[in-house]
Amino acid sequence: MKQLMTIIIAAILLGLPSMVGQKKNASKATTLEVTFNYQKQDGPGSNQYAVWIENEKGEMVKTLFVTSYTTKGRTRGNEQPMRGYIKRPACVPTWVKTAKADDLTDQQLDAFTGATPKVSGIQTFTWDFTDQQGKAVRKGTYRVKVEATLFNASTITYTGTFNTNDKPGSIKLTSQLTEQDEKHKDMVTGVKAIIK
């Protein structure tokens, strides 16, 4: 009986490190989720936004989303197709510069372009720690950014810095508004970035 108890205790102790390892791996962050409340605005020159990840140097890692007007524009009548950020340079200008949009093909832009929501509501975007080609990124420090063109040249940009080794939880975001009295500033509110 004593020998049987010793075998059982030994088996439990031998299995303990693997159980601890499983628990440790289970808490490892695997995604970053960005959410915000979008309120559709009236009039032209509004309702454009982009969500992306950049590295410590400010270089583009991955665009999670950009509105279709920004990348494809809108044609009426006999107009020639023209990217929205060319026709209207105030369309998410920080994203355009960081993404080097002029160097991207229409097919590359299509990969992360989506329709501007027709109704207000919560928008959610997820990053799986991969780059634009789908390859896992190196461990290190990154920035998440959300930029919205509120009206004409008025924009708001939310920025949060984090490390891929951070524990799951919320990332502190700062915001920069170009026009403090912008009446359309409620277009994007409640922005959150959470490592999961």
Key traits:
6-stranded mixed β-sheet; 23% helix; 35% strand; alpha+beta; 10 strands
State the oligomer.
single chain
Counted beta strands: 10
Q: Main sheet: which strands, in order across?
A: 4-3-2-6-7-9
Mean of residue pLDDT? 87
- Characterize the largest beta sheet: strand count, sense, and whether it forms a barrel: 6 strands, mixed
The radius of gyration computed from the alpha-carbon positions, rounded to a whole number of angstroms, is 22 Å
Distance between the termini: 47 Å
Runs in which pLDDT lies below 50 for 5 or more consecutive residues are: 16-26
The structural class is alpha+beta
Q: Shape, please?
A: globular
Portion in strands: 25-35%
Which range best describes the helical content: under 10%, 10-25%, 25-40%, 40-55%, 55-70% or over 70%? 10-25%
Return the string of H and E elements: HEEEHHHHEEEEEEE
- What is the count of helical runs? 5
Topology summary:
Elements: H1 2-26, E1 32-38, E2 48-55, E3 60-67, H2 68-72, H3 84-87, H4 93-99, H5 106-110, E4 113-114, E5 121-127, E6 141-151, E7 154-163, E8 169-170, E9 173-177, E10 188-195
Parallel strand pairs: 3-4
Antiparallel strand pairs: 1-5, 1-10, 2-3, 2-6, 6-7, 7-9, 8-10
Give a written overview of the molecule.
It is built from five helices and ten strands, in the order H-E-E-E-H-H-H-H-E-E-E-E-E-E-E. It has helices at residues 2-26, 68-72, 84-87, 93-99, 106-110, and strands at 32-38, 48-55, 60-67, 113-114, 121-127, 141-151, 154-163, 169-170, 173-177, 188-195. It is 23% helix and 35% strand. The strands form two sheets. The protein has a six-stranded mixed sheet. Strands 5-1-10-8 form a four-stranded antiparallel sheet, with no helix packed on it. The chain has 196 residues and is α+β, with helices and mostly antiparallel strands. The protein is globular, with a radius of gyration of 22 Å.
